[in-house]
Write a structure and sequence with these properties.
Chains A, B: Belongs to the HypE family. Chains A, B: Pfam families: AIRS (PF00586), AIRS_C (PF02769). Chains A, B: InterPro entries: HypE, PurM-like_C_dom, PurM-like_C_sf, PurM-like_N, PurM-like_N_sf. Chains A, B: This is Hydrogenase expression/formation protein HypE. The structure is a homodimer of 363-residue chains. Chain A is an alpha+beta fold. The first copy, chain A, has 2 domains: 123 residues, PurM-like, N-terminal domain (60s Ribosomal Protein L30, Chain: A), CATH 3.30.1330; 158 residues, PurM-like C-terminal domain (Phosphoribosyl-aminoimidazole Synthetase, Chain A, domain 2, Alpha-Beta Complex). Helix content of chain A is 29%, strand content 23%. In chain A, the strands form 3 sheets. In chain A, strands 10-12-9-13-11-14-15 form a 7-stranded mixed β-sheet. A 6-stranded mixed β-sheet of chain A has the order 2-1-3-8-6-7, covered by helices on one side. Chain A is globular and about 55 Å long. The first copy, chain A, starts with 30 loop residues before the first helix and ends in a 13-residue tail after the last strand. At the A-B interface, helix 1, strand 1, strand 3, strand 6 and helix 3 of A face helix 1, strand 1, strand 3, strand 6 and helix 3 of B.
Chain lengths: 363, 363
């Protein structure tokens, strides 16, 4: 379950019409998504694990009793699912297959788990080219190999022409938690530092530019990548890490807003320190978008106690997936539940959650 | 991974054009599905677990080493996924939500595992009525409660109008295997008896009749139901059970053909002993369909050594989900890989796998 906020803290009333029909914004990863999840899914299905709204569920299996038990001595597994509906299917830097593997691997990795097994369910549209499907499957295999996970089960359904869109892929992953490790979006504490593992907005702006047919001197490329080797190295070096999240749909702003709400803290950011590629910056300006809201598929946000921040940053910068890591802000006791950014020109602004739908079908 | 046969044994060549575009038949659960899986998915992604083509993957987790190991002493889990694209969403006896929970619960149950946890990923079409989504979610909650499983994680994506069809749901399940139990589609032995847990074709003919607007004096109803309580009772009473499968897409004929192929045995059926409701029989006649190929969503096939057959049948008949259980045939050493049925009028006929697409979007 990705990117969900506690809506008790939302203040602006949502017009009734938004609850009558599904809107594109309900898939944004922002405010409308969170609202749908809270009002439709959690209202009915809420339980201790689902309602915790972590990126992956933590489950315990007790081999002695054959019964589920959330607090016992058996292995604790991480369990997460995501559907992928990205358009176009193939884009600079990746494709829907890579994204489907990386997305699920990363949800397990940022939970602090070791990703082990994936399932993949395909919904194919009648008439879709088998050759394209083959390219996607090859890409998934390569992504699984790189991430060190095994695809162990799957399903294929076909819908009639015009009732789907070529291919949708749902991947579900199982990972294993190390004993005694507890990462949670509820763990951030005032004084903690916030690090992003690299440049932001690369994936979302690549998809947007591809769709809009915009070209730049330096080609934009999706950052889609597995993060489990980076997270392993980070957790080995710095066991004090409080939270990790991958800022996918809804971007860094939505992830940090969820964090501020769930941990009941404020977040202060320094815009000048946030790494953004020049070409992403240009594309954002051209399309009137803010990179803080744009999806990433190979980046993570990590919250760490101040005394361990520099050593963690050093470790991250030595890893190929963390070369451009930077401290972008800190957790504060002020303005609980809010993200406030000191802008490039010196003023302060509140960075809210993504309100509507900026980039449909970005992942 | 449901309903797949080893295509080494298929003899008729498939025209090349079938590999160029996805056809509705690729989702039938029959021959074309198996072919797509073999040539596109297994060719690239094949590994020991995936290639075993069981309804669910069996995985071992070793809490000591934090590494996957398929043959160790840690708990063995069952893992399975299915997408649901049934049309219409609501039908007599159930809806897509119930089906999505039952389908995944049953894949775990027939593997001999205790279903514990589910994930659910929704692909919503822009414009879909939220009230319908709410009805589906309520139905899923009721189905989870009845089956004793917990929905612990999920995802929601939205696609633009005309690029989906109201809602598709992918459920993935985790179950726990009892120590030392090994059910497998490879386990059938000559002399074993084959039992079906009740009437066949109810789900598929309900969907078809609803679509075609056909009405009968006695209303048809889908048999969608969780089978995990029945399988628990069966396995407790009869540990010698060799194989269990739920004959969903592709029907009883496809399941038995897979079994004959995977176990390298022949299967002899007696048509007179196969339970079919009168109204299903009428609907099949009217639409020119054979109930042997029609999907079931609350039935199972079990293969059991002859000496335990009657005691198992008695136990099954005492359970509400097995009241109409019947012995329908036996495993033989002859005609390896083939299913042969003695028909009502006394002749013998070969019952092949579903070749094309009989009932698109049946689950």
């Amino acid at each position: 379950m990705t990117h969900v906020a506690d809506f008790d803290q939302m203040t602006c009333p949502t017009p009734r019409s938004q609850y009558e029909r599904v809107l594109l914004g309900h898939g944004s990863g922002g405010k409308l998504s969170a609202d749908l999840i809270q009002r439709v899914f959690l209202a009915e299905l809420g339980n201790e694990v689902l309602s915790s709204l972590e990126d992956s569920a933590t489950l315990s299996l007790d081999s002695q009793t054959n019964l589920p038990n959330h607090r016992n001595s058996g292995p604790r597994i991480a369990f997460t699912t995501d559907s992928f509906v990205v358009k176009p299917l193939f884009f600079p830097g990746g494709d829907i297959g890579k994204l489907a593997v990386h997305g699920t691997v990363n949800d397990l990795a940022v939970a602090g788990a070791t990703p082990l097994y994936l399932s993949a369910a395909f919904i194919l549209e009648e008439g879709f080219a088998i050759e394209s499907l083959q390219r996607i499957v090859v890409s998934m295999r390569q992504a699984c190999d790189e991430a060190g996970v095994t695809l162990v089960t799957g399903d294929t359904k076909v819908v009639d022409r015009g009732k789907g869109d070529e291919v949708f892929i749902t991947t579900t992953g199982i990972g294993l938690h190390a004993a005694n490790r507890e990462l949670s979006i509820r763990n951030a504490r005032p004084g903690d530092q916030i690090i992003v593992s690299g440049t932001i907005g690369d994936h979302g702006m690549t998809i947007m530019s591809t769709r809009e047919g915009i070209e730049f001197e330096t080609a934009l490329e999706s950052d889609t990548a597995p993060l489990n080797d980076l997270t392993r190295v980070m957790l080995d070096a710095c066991p004090s890490i409080r939270v990790m999240r991958d800022p996918t749909r809804g971007g860094v702003s939505s992830t940090l807003n969820e964090l501020a709400t769930a941990s009941k803290v404020g977040i202060s950011l320094d815009e000048a320190s946030i790494p953004v590629r020049a070409e992403v910056h240009s594309a954002c300006e051209m399309l009137g978008l803010d990179p803080m809201y744009v999806a990433n598929e190979g980046k993570l946000i990590v919250v760490v106690p101040e005394q361990d921040c520099q050593s963690l940053l050093t470790v991250m910068k030595q890893h190929s997936r963390g070369r451009d890591a930077a401290v972008i802000g800190s957790v504060v006791a002020d303005h609980t539940g809010m993200v406030v950014m000191r802008s490039l020109i010196g003023g302060q602004r509140v960075v809210t959650m993504l309100a509507g739908e900026q980039l449909p079908r970005i992942c």
